[in-house]
Structures are given as C-alpha cells and as structure tokens.
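Reopening this ticket.

The earlier resolution said the output was attached, but the attachment link was broken on my side. Pasting everything inline this time so it's all in one place.
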Amino acid sequence: MSDNYGFLAPFYQALSRAVLGRKILEANQAFLAENLTRKLIFIGGGDGMAYRPFAEFLEGSYYEKSSKMLQLSQKNLANSQLNFIHGEFSGQEKGDCFILPFMLDSLQDEEIQGLLVSIQSSISPNGKLIFSDFFAPRTLRQKILHLGMIWFFRIFAAHSRVDLPNYPVFFQKAGFKLSEEKVWEGGWIKAQIYELDSRD
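Inline output:
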C-alpha cells in the first residue's frame, strides 16, 4: 500500500497551522464532544492531533492509509480505546458515529460514492456522520491559497483531484441528509453532521 502522505506526516501540523492557524483542528473537533459515548469510526484521521483532548473518551476504530500518519496517531491517541487499522474502510465494521476529516476532497468521485455507500450500510439507525472539509473558496485570498494547496499536495502527496467534489450530491445519493453545520472563513471550511434520510 503506497504511503502518499508519509513524507508530509512529520510536518503536516506545522504546515496546516502556518497557512490556516487552528481552523483545521477546530473543524475536525466540531461535534465530537457530544458524540463521545458512541462507537466511533474515524476514516482518514491523519496524525490524530485534533483528537488528543478527547483521547481518553474515544472508543472504536481508526482507519488510516498512511502508515506514518497511523504511527503518529497511535502515539497522539495512546490513551484512547481505539483500534488502529492500516488500510481503507470498506463496510466491514458497524459504528454509531463515522468521522471523515478533510479526506473526501482527495478521492475520485467513484471512490467517494463507494465509501459513503459502505458507511450507509454500516452506520446504526440513529447514527451520525461527521464530515469536515474545504468548500468553494469565496475570496481572492482563499482562491489563491486553495489553488496553492492543491498543487502542493499534487506534487508531494500525489493528490489526484484538481477540483472539489460536489459533496451534497454524493451524500444524497448515499441516503444521507444534512442536519447541522459550522463554518469558518466565511464557508470555505465547514464541519457538517449528516444522518440517514428516513424518507429513503
């Protein structure tokens, strides 16, 4: 399994804070505190730094494709009750709360749809999906930063996209509805909660 983010793992937090301060951490932490009693499934959680304040309360599984990121997450979340798994989530485990932190924007459309369908079949009936990521930039500064980040990650982490996915379409197709959101940078960064759509 390739480790596209392995090279960046030791520097990821420093790079993130240099560009966006604590906004990425805050978005990844959004909505987590009120879901700590649930079985959590983190998918693409990276180095786990955002979740350190909650470590002793975390139970469930932590999926990460980058072996070096996984090593850092195991260190940062050593006090947790998480099961750390090197690889992708493909519907092999049930959970109450699925967490997708800034990872859908790195997947191709068919990969996004496949992942969400797997989650839809694995989430408990009253479960929640917490999603955080970049959305369409609003200002010239944001557009410049966003384009710069895309090409940086294309060069150093084999990032496969040059655009942003149409997230609402994918969630709707997979049977989810938006129930709550928080925004940063005027909506360029969002954290959202999705739940199963009872109409489906």
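Reporter confirms the inline version is readable. The beta strands are 40-43, 59-64, 81-86, 95-101, 123-134, 176-184, 189-196. The radius of gyration is 16 Å.
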